[in-house]
Design brief:
- The protein is α+β, with helices and mostly antiparallel strands.
- The protein has a single domain, classed as NADH Oxidase (3-Layer(aba) Sandwich), CATH 3.40.109.10.
- Helices cover 34% and strands 18% of the residues.
- It has a 4-stranded antiparallel sheet with strand order 1-2-4-3, with helices on both faces.
- The structure holds flavin mononucleotide.
């Protein structure tokens, strides 16, 4: 698959076979995250890899749209360090780029994954902060559920020429 195909064919996958995902592959995905662009190249991110059943269950209890974590083989929490980001507001933007890189690398590696939103919802930020015992200056941005896919998705049509403008609106 070339890169454009990977981008277009990536879908949110929420059903997993249960087959374990090995650490070496997870490390490659994190590497992809760390090669994302970031403001002033500050790379303010941290990644928490978690497999613990109890942690996954706790998240499903505080986040109604994170149910797929229950059956995921592994989860990644993407966070940013407020002391490392370029300026207020840049950490989440950088983390979004890292999250998408991880999802694309997962798809290219035969895994399925989904972005579970944490930021900007304050209640989710506070709850996830507590569950993972993050330091004060570290803020959670997104959770990524990962596993070998147990569902197939058809390719939606999304190309929308009416959203493209030339030179001026
Ligand atoms: C900021 C953000 C937050 C999201 N939060 C969730 C979520 O909490 N739970 C979930 O199942 N999917 C979540 N998604 C995935 C979207 O539902 C999904 O990307 C969208 O429906 C498009 O489908 P696709 O990823 O298959 O192209 C989120 C995506 C983004 C970008």
């Amino acid at each position: 698959m070339d890169l454009l195909e990977i981008i277009i064919h990536r879908r949110s996958i929420r059903k997993y076979t249960g087959q374990p995902v090995d650490d070496a592959l997870i490390e490659k995905l994190i590497q992809a995250g760390m090669y994302a662009p970031s403001a002033v190249n500050k790379q303010p991110w941290h990644f928490v890899i978690f497999r613990d059943r109890d942690t996954r269950k706790k998240i499903t209890e505080i986040h109604k749209n994170a149910w797929m974590l229950k059956d995921a083989s592994v989860g990644i929490l993407v966070c940013w360090d407020e002391t490392l980001q370029h300026d207020t507001g840049y950490g989440p933007v950088d983390c979004a780029a890292a999250t998408q890189n991880i999802l694309l690398a997962a798809h290219a590696s035969g895994l399925g994954g989904v972005w579970i939103g944490v930021y900007p919802r304050e209640d989710r930020i506070n709850n996830v902060h507590k569950i993972f015992q993050l330091p004060k200056a570290v803020q959670p941005f997104s959770l990524i559920a990962l596993g070998y896919p147990d569902e197939m998705k058809t390719l939606p049509e999304r190309f929308n020429p009416s959203r493209i403008h030339f030179e001026k609106w």
